[in-house]
């Protein structure tokens, strides 16, 4: 579905713990559903609408296809300060327990009566999933995960790659502890620094071989009880951060999920082959290209159609 008139507006969303999130809403005149589109770690929301003038990126494509998009900077990123370098401190759990429900409540107030879904690139993908797992009363119409993966030995089939991941995480921890936060910008690997408690929690997950809260509750253990339609997408060129074999294992216990690896040849590991078999991209996208490269526009359109299809089904 194409929509001619797209409206944009800026908002300030207050979380339950008082943190304020900068949010932009991008919507056609008569949306069919509303989707929260959230970014990856070490970047901000700008990554989700990169594209030629007049065309935009993922967010613009979702809107053109008939979705209202709630498009936030997660806490400590972009305009949702304080930033880590300014003394901002947050954990992964606070993203799950505060940012996700605040954004969901705002979407419901802004678009009452419309089905709600979430599309998350990497970090926001598994944060939204984590909230659904620990709060089964929250039942979005659909969850879409783009290259979403938490590094765990159980998800990494190759020993040498796992040893490399462990070494990277531990080295990053040494840097973060020395600086007081993880200096993404100084290291020139992203546009947003990460708070020390956030980095420490993800390092603890790596060490424990479990995706879990700071107090030891396992998100992963709840995955078999997920009652939300789940689509996980990996890029065929993602060799480290969201490798397709790892993302497939990460969501493998979710009932009825779909997992698709997209690129020059699209492979369906779980789900309905017919929905994806004719999708071919002119590249094998890596971790960031999956969300920011305009050559992935056919994929973004297909995601919008999948969300609308799920959102408009009787529940």
Write the layout of secondary structure elements.
Layout: E1 6-14, E2 20-28, E3 33-38, H1 58-64, E4 67-72, H2 92-110, E5 116-121, H3 123-134, E6 142-146, H4 159-179, E7 181-182, H5 184-187, E8 194-195, H6 196-208, E9 230-235, H7 244-250, E10 258-262, E11 267-270, H8 273-276, H9 289-292, H10 297-311
Parallel strand pairs: 3-4, 3-5, 5-6, 6-9, 9-10
Antiparallel strand pairs: 1-2, 2-4, 7-8, 10-11
Helix pairs in contact: 1-10, 2-3, 4-6
Describe what you observe in this structure:
This protein has a single domain, classed as Alpha/Beta hydrolase fold, catalytic domain (Rossmann fold). Helix 2 packs across helix 3. It has 10 helices and 11 strands. The two termini are 22 Å apart. The chain is of the alpha/beta class and 315 residues long. The protein has a 9-stranded mixed beta sheet, with helices on both faces. It has a two-stranded antiparallel sheet with strand order 7-8.
Concise account of the structure shown:
With 315 residues, the chain is α/β, with parallel strands linked by helices. The chain has helices at residues 58-64, 92-110, 123-134, 159-179, 184-187, 196-208, 244-250, 273-276, 289-292, 297-311, and strands at 6-14, 20-28, 33-38, 67-72, 116-121, 142-146, 181-182, 194-195, 230-235, 258-262, 267-270. It has a single domain (6-311), classed as Rossmann fold.
